[in-house]
Structure formats: structure tokens, C-alpha cells
Hints:
Elements: H1 3-27, H2 32-50, H3 53-75, H4 80-83, H5 94-101, H6 123-130, H7 138-152, H8 161-175
Amino acid sequence: MDEDGLVIGLTAVLAGTTVLFVVLGFAYQPLLLLFATIFGAATYSLWYHASGRLGERVERTAASTRRGRRQRANAAGRGPREFQGFGPGRRASAEGRRRQRGRTAGGQGRADRSRREPNEPTLAEAYRTLGVDADADDAAVKAAYRERVKTTHPDTDDGDEEQFKRVNRAYERIRE
């Protein structure tokens, strides 16, 4: 039996129990109407799920939330490309991460790249750390990065945390 059939069957059982409690509540004990109310709420919830209306409502709510976020982002002067990487279960886009890292205390982005953070390598050092030429394409840089990360990751037998951090900083520098 598939999941929908099981939910519909359970809904039918709860509906029958609800009717039984309503009849018994009116005939014998009014306290049973409280149980009828509880079973009725459970029946309605399962029916709402089985009919697919719960899923549709969740989708509508999510779409409306995304639409509202996009509108707020556009009103704040950010375009949809900047905003598309944010939200539940999503990682920030590379552009968004760079923009966030580029913020200074005054809220302004860094105008020149000559001012580097203390641990940030130069571009030449970054290419040397990854072991690729300065004219290497993105695919080659990414492949070299993945190979270096596999060998330097702290969870491996011969991994080195400092070297791993250096490789990550180098890759971030090249991607900028």
C-alpha cells in the first residue's frame, strides 16, 4: 500500500471514531464531545495532507516568501543575481561572499585590492600554493584545489591544518 492510501485509510478510521464519539457524547456523556473534537481535528489534518492541499499551501507560502525577499532585495538596490544565493538550504553565491568580505567598518566596500588582509596570499603565491600556472583556466584551478585539499585535509593521515588553511586562502584569492 502506498503512502497516500495509508493516510486516507487512517483518515477514514479517525473520521469513524469522531462520529462514534459525537453520537455517544450526545446519547450518554457530554464529556465525550471533547474527544470527538480532538479526533475531528486529527481527521481534518490528515485529510488536508492526503488531499494534497497541505503541500500546495506550503509551496504557495514558500513562493510568496521568495517573492517578498526578492522585492525587498530589489528595493534595497541589490539585483536578483546578488540575492539568488541566499535562503534556507542554500549557500551564498561567490559574488555575495566576496561582497560581504569586502565590507569595512564604515560599511563601504574595499575600493582597491592592494590592501590585503594579513594572511591573504598574493596572487602569485596563491597560484604557487595550488601548483598551477598563472594562466590556468578555472577548471584547472578547481581540479588542483581539490587535489591539494584531499592531501592536506586535517582528517587524513598526513593532513596538516595550517597547509589546509593556506590552500583554502589561495583558492579564495584566485577566485576573487
